[in-house]
Design goal:
The protein is α+β, with helices and mostly antiparallel strands and 333 residues long.
Length: 333
């Protein structure tokens, strides 16, 4: 909250002096000061964070909540500030519905990607290539890895829509599609983690061929050390964890929220069945997913109802522990 500065000019809060997940942009062109203003990922995650902090204080018993506020030096005025920031944080969106990676992004130069690919073949580390040419990545609409799109990997579209609604911005049905198409053309994927994010989002957008291509690149990055030096003496734990996450949340379509567990699978054509289990609030839940069926088994006392419902085919199902359930599913694609 202390990073956010209120502007009387537009009645919005702004955050400056930061670098987003992209990592190619460290400052503005021809500027001596480091950092950027209003990185969309940063600003929206700050809003999300402040809302979760308020949620926690609301969940705790009043006595405990007051004790923590006293110990942390949090005043009622701080809570009001958090609420105000969460309603008036600045996000820049153009007329086409593209969310600016940061303030000033749209005024940067476009890069001739075809020319650079023809000349250098591998252009994943465009920052090094440009610097070797005496240029700066700060001047161009390029990204090393997912930046704005990281939001859609970490949060569901419904959660992001809630943030937009709260801030007074429009979130359309095609917002993700438009921004994916825009930024994927301007990303070099200098980090293998970028491929994890784009794989998951391609799956969200019901693009099975594209998501499968990304998934293969995610796996190959570790198996064959495709970037040369990423894993010569071990493993890239982030990419391995990301590949598992894509399988569970993407292909198997299992996502756990505080009030429900959603199952919306889209298995690759090459896969016939996948079995796994997750621990949800100290309870083990086993899943077996095929092309047209999901089997669910919740450990616990027999006939005891599980506290949250399962959402399958957009319908809520309340199930009991120690009983095997089978649900027919509609193909997502």
């Amino acid at each position: 909250a202390s990073l956010a500065e209120f502007s009387q000019k537009d009645k919005r809060y702004h955050i400056k002096g930061v670098m987003g997940p992209d990592e190619f942009h460290e400052k503005y062109p021809d500027s001596d000061k480091p950092g950027l203003k209003d990185n969309a990922y940063t600003n929206l995650m700050v809003v999300w964070l402040l809302l979760r902090a308020k949620d926690i204080l609301g969940i705790l018993p009043v006595k405990e909540s007051k004790r923590i506020m006293r110990k942390a030096g949090i005043k009622e005025a701080d809570l009001k500030l958090w609420d105000d920031i969460s309603r008036r944080m600045n996000v820049i969106i153009n007329n086409e519905g593209i969310i600016a990676q940061f303030d000033g992004y749209f005024s940067l130069l476009e890069l001739d990607w075809d020319r650079y690919r023809e000349r250098y073949e591998n252009i994943e580390r465009l920052d090094r290539i440009l610097k070797a040419e005496g240029k700066s990545p700060d001047s161009y609409k390029i990204s090393k890895q997912a930046d704005l799109l990281m939001l859609f990997y970490l949060l569901s579209c419904s959660e992001i829509k809630e943030l937009f609604d709260r801030l007074g911005y429009k979130f359309e049905k095609d917002t993700l599609q438009k921004n994916y198409k825009y930024y994927i053309r301007r990303t070099s994927h200098g980090s293998t983690l970028s491929k994890v994010v784009h794989c998951y989002i391609a799956d969200l957008l019901k693009q099975p061929k594209e998501s499968w291509r990304w998934f293969q690149e995610v796996l190959e990055s570790d198996i064959f050390d495709t970037q040369g030096g990423t894993v010569p003496e071990g493993i890239h734990l982030g990419v391995m964890g990301g590949s598992i996450d894509v399988v569970l949340r993407g292909f198997a379509g299992v996502d756990a929220f505080h009030d429900k567990i959603v199952i919306n699978p889209s298995l690759p054509k090459r896969w016939h069945r996948i079995k796994f289990r997750i621990n949800y609030k100290d309870t083990w839940i086993s899943f077996a997913v095929t092309e047209n069926q999901v089997a669910v088994y919740v450990q616990g006392r027999k006939y005891e109802r599980f506290p949250v419902p399962f959402e399958i085919n957009s319908k809520l199902h309340h199930i009991s522990c120690a009983k095997l359930y089978r649900f027919e599913i509609k193909n997502r694609f």
